[in-house]
Design a protein that fits this description.
The structure is a homodimer.
Chain A: E1 8-18, E2 37-46, E3 49-55, H1 56-60, E4 68-71, E5 76-79, E6 81-83, H2 95-102, H3 107-112, H4 116-126, H5 129-145, E7 148-154, H6 161-177, E8 181-189, H7 200-215, E9 227-231, H8 239-251, E10 255-260, H9 269-275, E11 279-282, H10 288-297, E12 300-303, H11 305-310, H12 319-325, E13 330-331, H13 345-356, H14 360-366, H15 369-374, E14 392-394, H16 402-405, E15 414-417, E16 420-421
Parallel strand pairs in A: 1-4, 1-5, 6-7, 7-8, 8-9, 9-10, 10-11, 11-12, 12-13
Antiparallel strand pairs in A: 1-2, 2-3, 5-14, 14-15, 15-16
Chain lengths: ~425, ~425
């Protein structure tokens, strides 16, 4: 059975195995409560892929003396977490701004005073590629320790050709060195760079006509982005501006994502439905009507509760309504230095349960298989089914409900990517 | 200089050292923002105690070839965290109840249906001392990883002699084996045990007249508790009942703590002031008038924001008002299986900042030196001053404001207790 196999791993003594076996698409409605749970299970991995899932006695006959046996200690095993929305690459931090906000300044006030995104842009432009890589690697390692095995990462703190490309090269470097799987997204339309404040149209034309073709890999350039994202908001880009960027991205073969309806309804989600975006992200203020457009268009909502929490706000996106309407909800961290310096998927899952009343099972589905589909990787990762990558976590606990219950506990997770232990 | 010294440790290359040097009492008002910060500092430890703090060049002359040098890598160093309110010892967990609560059940409904504290009481009574010890050690290790070097731990899931004493012996065992310093508290008056539901008076008389003298070490018994706590609440004990227990505790030399005003004003805080309690804990609903009584009596408020968060509630205690009134505020985790399964002091500090608008400096003072004074250990731990125990943390970050900013980040903290590295 294992002849010609480069490596085989046999994970045994799994107290509770969350397979998330199910249809070959993102899960909706009551499907989000179905975890494909197995008790006292085992998992066979060959060449980095799951080749069998089931009872120990049945699977043992498929192994030989070359198979590495790993004992899960009777603990919970789940798929690795898939973080579908991060701003991983940036220089510096905004801990001083965090303190100012506690003392009373609003996010918008800080931005107007030259803080916010623009301060990170200035630091990121001034950083070398190696400096960005070192810091991104440190934050990626936090995520890895926290169980994230695949993550989306955006540019957007460069806002000029040189630095946007530098950020995307850092993401490409992290993808190449592994072990965490990376999905790169161009977010040059994060905000208007200060030096072009009165030349918005020129900035957008440059993104649409020059930068997008380049990062999409046209004209002999290396392909540096798989998705294009726009921050559609009162303080960022209008719906018309967002359309201009995303129509270009679509033409050049990039998938679409939108930061939409974070602070005000009518800021981009309907456009996402119209253009067939993969996701619209945030949605704190989304209306029922817009949700029905998203549903009809098959767009996945990406909920970012940590950014609501870290901003000290109380309006979370209407997760329950989305699930009841049959939308394939995703939960992600929004890790970034301003509104969500919170890299832990487990914490975002806990917030999903406590603040958005998602059931622990729904939060787990949203953080794994649904997130994978939102990144176009649903056939590869997000569940532990035969043929998929063996990205899995051996937790300290024995029941999936403990993941969100023990909020922010300093747990140690054994992390495996493609069947190889990569625990930090 | 080091002659006769058993062990000496020289911590060098400290980028930012939070000494918390200050008056020999808990800090109030603007003192809570004063961190005694030193840049590019070093710390000398002999026989587990701080013997010098200052510039590397000055301290180096105090060392010899026997001194172990530890490089802090330019990182932040703070005192170890002091968690002044935990229910560390219990059997089982309530992750299933967590799920039910998300699905709509209230804490009170779950308690009325035989869930809540009573379900943990049943499991804890059924557990052996060794089983309790194994689970408590696991949770203690979470806290240790999270930087907690001293913690208070309460009984209260026994509610009969046998199990209350078993819990206190587990705490004594953890204290004896170290490394985390433990402060034991009797909380037999956590709730009325189910079998005595119609004999409340009898239960209270037994606590006041028999259990308290025993655990306080009278009549030749070993002293198993340093404090006595009562849960004063609509669903627990009245103010009159609380008085009965605490007056006995005071008579037998125990310090006093009270769970007060969590759900309704007028539930115990004024009594704490009258009896000279060390702390009153919770205080989500406390009034200004009661706060002025606490201030006049020198009682320390212990704020437990993680229990507000985990219960999905929005009414946090009025931390800013307390600080402005000059109360020596403490922040603790309230770690317990029902309302706060959140063992991380860093997370409670982040909540203090985000949900209660405490400045990062105030949260750090509340979680260290003020907490130490609330446990009668202010001369021993809580700050890094000459003569105090060398309980300190070498963090991954370089500035104290990052501690609360990177909410729930899976950081690795190097933990030292009495100058010895005890990192997990």
């Amino acid at each position: 059975m294992l002849e010609g196999v480069l490596s085989a791993v046999f994970l045994v003594n799994i107290g509770q195995l969350v397979t998330l076996a199910g249809p070959a698409r993102a899960r909706v409605g009551v499907e989000m409560r179905e975890l494909g749970l197995l008790r006292d299970a085992a998992l066979l991995v060959e060449d980095g892929r799951v080749t069998a899932v089931g009872a120990y006695a049945e699977l043992r006959s498929l192994t030989d003396s070359q198979t590495a046996v790993i004992d899960a200690g009777g603990h919970l095993v789940t798929p690795g977490f898939v973080d579908a929305h991060t701003h991983l690459v940036f220089a510096g931090n905004r801990a001083a701004e965090f303190e100012q906000r506690i003392a009373g300044a609003t996010y918008q006030e800080l931005a107007a005073a030259g803080g916010g995104i623009q301060s990170t842009v200035a630091l990121t432009r001034a950083a070398t590629e190696d400096e960005l890589l070192v810091q991104a690697r440190r934050h990626r390692d936090w995520m890895l320790r926290g169980g994230t095995t695949t993550l989306e990462a955006k540019s957007g703190y460069g806002l000029n050709r040189e630095t946007e490309l530098r950020m995307l090269r850092v993401i490409a470097q992290l993808a190449a060195e592994g072990p965490v799987r990376m999905v790169p997204t161009l977010l040059a339309a994060h905000t208007v760079p200060r030096e072009m404040a009165d030349r918005r149209g020129e900035y957008l034309a440059w993104i649409a006509d020059e930068l997008i073709p380049e990062v999409a890999g046209h004209n002999g350039n290396p392909r540096l982005a798989r998705y294009c994202d726009v921050f559609c908001d009162d303080h960022a880009f209008t719906v018309a501006e967002t359309r201009r960027v995303l129509e270009s991205a679509k033409r050049y073969g990039l998938g679409l994502r939108i930061h939409a309806e974070q602070f005000r309804p009518g800021t981009g989600a309907a456009l996402g439905a119209e253009l067939g975006a993969a996701t619209v992200d945030h949605l704190e203020t989304v209306t029922t009507e817009t949700l029905s457009h998203l549903k009809a268009a098959g767009v996945q909502p990406v909920l970012l509760p940590a950014s609501v929490f870290c901003l000290g706000r109380s309006q979370y996106p209407p997760a329950r309504q989305m699930i009841e309407m049959g939308l394939p909800v995703v939960v992600a961290t929004d890790f970034n230095p301003g509104s969500s310096p919170a890299p832990s998927m487990l914490f975002s899952m806990a917030l999903s349960c406590i603040a958005m009343r998602m059931l622990p099972s729904e939060a787990l589905v949203a953080a794994t298989v649904n997130a994978a589909y939102s990144l176009g990787l649903g056939d590869e990762v997000g569940s532990l089914e035969v043929g998929k990558a063996a990205d899995f976590l051996v937790h300290e606990c024995k029941d999936y409900r403990e993941l969100a219950y023990n909020v922010a506990a300093p747990v140690r997770i054994r992390v495996f990517i493609a069947g190889v232990e990569v625990s930090q």
